[in-house]
Design a protein that fits this description.
With 318 residues, the protein is α/β, with parallel strands linked by helices. The chain has 2 domains: 1-82, Winged helix-like DNA-binding domain superfamily/Winged helix DNA-binding domain (Arc Repressor Mutant, subunit A); 95-318, D-Maltodextrin-Binding Protein, domain 2, CATH 3.40.190.290. Helix content is 47%, strand content 22%. It has 12 helices and 13 strands. Strands 3, 4, 5, 6, 7, 8, 9, 10 and 13 form a 9-stranded mixed beta sheet that branches. α9 links the parallel β7 (202-206) and β8 (228-233). α1 (3-15) crosses α2, α1 crosses α3 and α7 (170-177) packs across α8 (181-188).
Length: 318
């Protein structure tokens, strides 16, 4: 048994597909199969059901739980030794949603690599809930995402209150408010305080499993409104691409709407207000208190905080 075989096993357990996993690891499918066979021979168990589709056996589930911990401990050891080594090499696994990375990483990475040119950064782009789980499991070093409350065993630093806006076009307002659309536009410029005003307007909404959707649903619930849902999807980027077709209004956060408004400067972005306060997502930077982080990880943290401090002063309103 070796750590490389364990690593390959963990990756296959995540994908549950030999071809996809081999491509992800830049190895042949035959090579991957050999590593799994070595583990099965070493432990004397079958790790995967091969038919009707690839799934973990009970033994495989037990090995996955232990292998994840072993690999996290090995990464922890590597990080400790990096600080001793003179070549200052290492790696950093950072979980951050793709669209947030597009906004902040162009400012973070140059500053970081000017000091740490030999550090490899591996970016993970799952949902905030999934990445929070990965942080607890030792699969991430740092997490940048939504977290409404601090969690035990995590060092959590709030870095941005990401404000929520209702977004729609003049054409959509004219269609559903006819003669009063300009008044509605003026009334909502300072914030949408009552979603009952928009109960006849169709909406493009995130999938119910997403944290953003749960926040939006709470706003509709407080207003006593059942939204007219035209489309549900995982990606707000999809809603932004559909904006010219006026299928419905959608909700976007401060960070997401900055690039959208550069392309659509005439779009209406109305702050969403509930209980007298602007609705917002609490964006944090977090790491596990029980895991060792090298010096370069803390430099990455400080640079990230500085970048988000600048972003916090930017509002998407044109």
């Amino acid at each position: 048994m070796n750590l490389l075989s364990l690593y390959y096993f963990v990756e296959l357990a995540k994908e549950l597909h030999f071809t996809n996993t081999a491509q992800k690891l830049y190895i042949s499918q035959q090579n991957l199969s050999q590593h799994i066979q070595k583990l099965e021979q070493y432990y004397g168990v079958v790790l995967f059901h091969r038919k009707p589709k690839l799934t973990l056996t009970y033994a495989g589930e037990q090995l996955l739980a232990s292998a994840t911990k072993i690999l996290a401990e090995e990464k922890d050891l590597v990080n400790r030794l990096v600080n001793i080594s003179s070549n200052r090499r290492g790696s950093l696994k950072v979980g951050i949603p793709a669209y947030r990375g597009q906004v902040c990483l162009p400012d973070i990475l140059p500053a970081f690599y000017s000091k740490w040119p030999n550090i490899t950064i591996n970016l993970i782009t799952e949902s905030s809930s999934k990445m929070e789980e990965m942080l607890f499991e030792g699969e991430l070093d740092l997490f940048v995402g939504i977290m409404y409350q601090d969690k035990a065993r995590l060092n959590v630093t709030p870095i941005l209150n990401d404000l929520l806006y209702l977004t729609c076009s003049d054409k959509l307002l004219k269609k559903y408010f006819t003669d009063s659309w300009e008044q509605v536009k003026r009334d909502c410029a300072g914030g949408v305080k009552d979603l009952r005003l928009f109960e006849k307007v169709p909406f493009l909404l995130p999938q119910p499993s997403l944290k953003l959707r749960r926040t939006i649903d709470q706003c509709f619930l407080e207003a006593g409104v059942v939204p007219d849902i035209f489309l549900e999807a995982q990606s707000t980027e999809l809603f932004m691409s559909l904006y010219p077709y006026n299928y419905g209004a959608f909700f976007g956060t401060q960070m997401r709407l900055q690039s959208f408004l550069r392309d659509n400067p005439d779009a209406n972005v109305f702050p969403l207000i509930m209980d007298g306060r602007m609705v917002q997502h609490r964006l944090v930077l977090a790491y596990h208190e029980d895991r060792y982080l090298p010096e370069y990880a803390f430099d990455f943290i400080e640079i990230t905080k500085e970048v988000f401090d600048r972003l916090s002063r930017v509002r998407p309103v044109p």
